[in-house]
Design a protein that fits this description.
This protein is an all-alpha fold. The chain is about 45% helix and about 0% strand. The protein is elongated, with a radius of gyration of 46 Å.
């Protein structure tokens, strides 16, 4: 009896200590000793009710409930709407003409270019080459000389014989031929018939006078 009573007393004492620890309001060393703010989440909540907020709260609440109540119908309607809005891809075309990308077909510049192409033929951008004689140690020298002419005739010959990599396309295939036979090339070599055999070492200047 005595031992049972002592064990019961000790058990009751431990229970009271546990309750005291759980109900102790004093902050420990690991806790913040500042004041506890109750309902802190409501401090930034506006106290005034706005009709617009109330309207959207109710509308989206009903919409969310409706979507949750009929999930398959919601998914089906969403797929149909996306499919209808994507029908425009059937007529989608990639524009590669730089003229149409930057100039409207109804603009004055586009209409004038169309008139020019219809009446005078399409306009082609010309490629130009500017020569500088920097072979002399003293500085730039005269461009017009017998040696320069010989070098330039060789350059033009290489251009005419050159082929595009892995193809048989040459200069004759891509040049502008208004008559359908010969390429339009405005060059100094035209004064000598396009052949270096017509260039005399002592009389070539007379061809240009």
């Amino acid at each position: 009896m005595v031992s049972g009573h002592i064990a019961y007393q000790r058990h009751s004492q431990r229970q009271s200590e546990r309750l005291q620890l759980l109900q102790d309001a004093a902050p420990s060393d690991d806790e913040d000793e500042g004041d506890v703010v109750h309902n802190a989440g409501y401090l930034d909540r506006p106290q005034k009710r706005y009709r617009l907020n109330s309207f959207f709260d109710g509308a989206f609440s009903k919409l969310g409930g409706l979507c949750a109540r009929f999930p398959f119908t919601t998914i089906g309607i969403s797929i149909i709407i996306v499919a209808l809005l994507s029908l425009g891809w059937m007529s989608f075309e990639i524009e590669t003409d730089p003229v149409r990308l930057w100039v409207s077909p109804s603009s004055a510049a586009a209409q004038e270019k169309t008139f020019f192409d219809d009446n005078f033929g399409p306009f082609y951008r010309t490629e130009q080459v500017f020569l500088v004689n920097d072979t002399l140690p003293s500085g730039p020298g005269p461009v017009l000389s017998y040696e320069t002419l010989a070098w330039w005739f060789d350059v033009e010959s290489q251009i005419r014989r050159h082929q595009v990599l892995n193809t048989s396309i040459t200069f004759d295939d891509i040049c502008f031929k208004p008559t359908g036979d010969a390429c339009v090339v405005q060059s100094l070599t035209a004064y000598f018939g396009g052949s270096f055999a017509n260039v005399h070492p002592d009389q070539w200047q007379e061809k240009l006078l």
